[in-house]
Amino acid sequence: MNKLISIFLFFLYSGLQSQVILDITSVPKDTPENARIFVASSLNSWNPNDPKFELKKNEWGNYSIEIPEGSGKAEYKFTRGSWETAEGDENGNGRENRVFHFNGKPQSLDNQILSWEKTQPKRNTASANVKILSENFWIPQLKTSRKIWIYLPENYATTKESYPVIYMEDGQNLFNESTSFSGEWKVDEAMDSLFTMGKRNAIIVGIENGGPERLNEYSAWNNAKYGGGKGELYADFLANTLKLFIDKTYRTLPKAKNTGLIGSSMGGLISFYTGMKYPDKFGKLGIFSPSFWFARNELMWFVEQNSTKIKKTKFYFLAGKKESPEMVSDVEEMVPLLIKKGVPEKNIHTKFDDYGTHSESYWSKEFPAAFLWLFP
């Protein structure tokens, strides 16, 4: 009966607008009486304690939250405010992400939390070639600071060689399990292995995301439901502040043909935008599972109207068919436009995997192939 009342109130107060309501119908017995429960999801950069995604406890003791209508697939988990208090499976182990699809209609979904995960301490897995460049690197364009990681090739200290540079978003997920929220890319292990095999190497610069500011900084345009709009300033930081510092401080090959951007999800969106805005600075783009949906119309218009000097830019697009229904089609829609703007087909590589999911584990497995194609 309580559930029926909840559904009735949902439709009544939503004015029949399209949105999703998530109900928690049961929680583990060891849940504190005053527990605060949050949704960490692909919609809020997997922030485990986002106040905008906190569930409300109703008079019947159930938790619920309304999610504004979006597009495609949303993955999510419940937490009590941190990844150390995330929900688990029936045995207290980590569980797979929950999933729902926006369908343009009101939805009310029941969820049962079986346990709170018995987390194991995360390991420090960064290789000796990874350093913290700065805990608080100043971003004048955004009037804030950010932690910057840097990977230097194995032989950097013993040669006078200069190297290509790749700038990567979501730096906390690149090198170290202990700082990642759902697994790391293992970029350092991949580069160490390529060095051992005698392959070309590169300097990797990882910029940690701004947590609650991630969606705002990773899109140049505002999405009415999820934010954005600071991406132009962030791109200017990458091109005219951070790159300038790295080229002055380290032995780099500074030309665009030796400089790349790689990012996934919203990081893929901002990497693509930055590469299109500054083709004279970044000539190699690794675009993994890009969130083009976040500002699709604005992005297409931008490429159509503003892209210049991109004939030498190389694009490596990666997407999984187990991601949102629009993921592959969004990339497929972008490729002909790039060709129309003068990018040779040989400079565009697309890889769509049947098994691909929106996850660090997928991107980690695909990183070496992307690097070798972009920097042969």
From TrEMBL:
Matches recorded under Gene3D superfamilies: alpha/beta hydrolase (3.40.50.1820), Immunoglobulins (2.60.40.10)
Record-annotated membrane-spanning stretches: none
UniProt-listed InterPro entries: AB_hydrolase_fold (IPR029058), CBM20 (IPR002044), Esterase-like (IPR000801), Ig-like_fold (IPR013783), Mycobacterial_A85_antigen (IPR050583)
GO molecular function, one term: starch binding
Domain CBM20, residue spans: 12-118
Species this chain originates from: Chryseobacterium koreense CCUG 49689
Domain of life according to the entry: Bacteria
Protein name, as recorded: Alpha-dextran endo-1,6-alpha-glucosidase
